[in-house]
Amino acid sequence: MFKKLWSFILIIPISCVSAQTNETTVSSSEQTVIYRGKLSPSANQKLLSILKNGESKIVWLSITSEGGEINHGMDLGDIVHDYDLKLEVNDYCLSSCANYVFSAAKHHRISNHAVIGFHGGTTGMEKEITSFITALPEKEQESTKQNLERYMKSAVIREREFFEKIGVDQQITTLGQSSEYKAIGGKEEFTGWYYSLEGLAKLGVSNVEVVDPPWVYQHLSDKTKFFKVRVDGI
After folding, report:
1. Alpha carbons 161 and 147: distance in angstroms, whole number
2. pLDDT digit string (tens) for 170-209?
3. Do 77 and 166 form a contact (C-beta atoms < 8 A)?
4. Residue 88's closest CA among 110, 69, 119?
5. Is 70 exceeded by the pLDDT of residue 9?
6. Beta carbons within 10 angstroms of residue 191's beta carbon
7. Is the pLDDT of residue 166 over 80?
8. Which residues, 6 or more positions from 136, have their beta carbon under 8 angstroms from its beta carbon?
């Protein structure tokens, strides 16, 4: 039950996006590690192994991911930050991938159609958690509530320290959940939100190079759509 809640919150459904596999793959080519799929401890560990034991120095992490459990995202973000990896996104980097991996990099390279989609972090989840618990059989509710409270207490602290470490505004994970955008969600079903390059820079995510600019947002599918969030009017 616990895992189901966090899958619901932190992984973007991308069944309508071109052929996906359930297994995350991590491979290297010259100075680049290619990471495709859900964020996971085993995939993160394989990246670390390549960084520590590879024959050539890794400069780039090229990622395509729908996200994953919050700590797995911060684990990968820590690796990107600590090893000063440059990040490449050719297709999409969603949810925990956007929150913690894209944000952690100091240099980025994206295609002109890449989707960097945010979906919320550790804060602002009270309603979702309450709804999840109340939908459970009554006998499971109290123990699930206690487990989630312990989990959230730890995750909230870690996320705050993570954003302080990487020098990015933690609001990057919550601005799309503000009351200003409730009407947008009511008009059309959106998965999450995205920022302009200027908006990202205002939040502390800069040095984003676009291949064959301009960068033009396109929905990933009819079921995987993001709306634009402004930062200080941008």
Report:
1. 22
2. 999 999 988 888 777 656 788 899 999 999 999 999 999 9
3. yes
4. 110
5. no
6. 21
7. yes
8. 1, 144
d(CA 201, CA 178): 20
The reported pLDDT for the residue numbered 55 is 78
Amino acid at 105: A
Residue 15: burial class (beta carbons within 10 Å; 0-12, 13-18, 19+):
exposed
List the structure tokens of 124.
């602002």
Output the DSSP codes for 59-86.
-EEEEEB-B--HHHHHHHHHHHHHTT-E
Concatenated DSSP letters of 101-169 = IITT-SSEEEETT-EEEB---SSS-HHHHHHHHHTS-HHHHHHHHHHHHHHHHHHHHHHHHHHHHHT--
Between strands 32-36 and 25-29, the pairing is antiparallel
Tokens of 3: 């895992």
CA distance 7 to 70: 10
> What pTM was computed for the model?
0.88
Q: Which two tokens stand for residue 159?
A: 């996320």
Is the separation of the CB atoms in 191 and 117 below 8 Å? yes
Only one residue has tokens 């295609």, namely 111
Question: What is the total residue count of the chain?
Answer: 234
Show the tokens assigned to 129: 């958690």
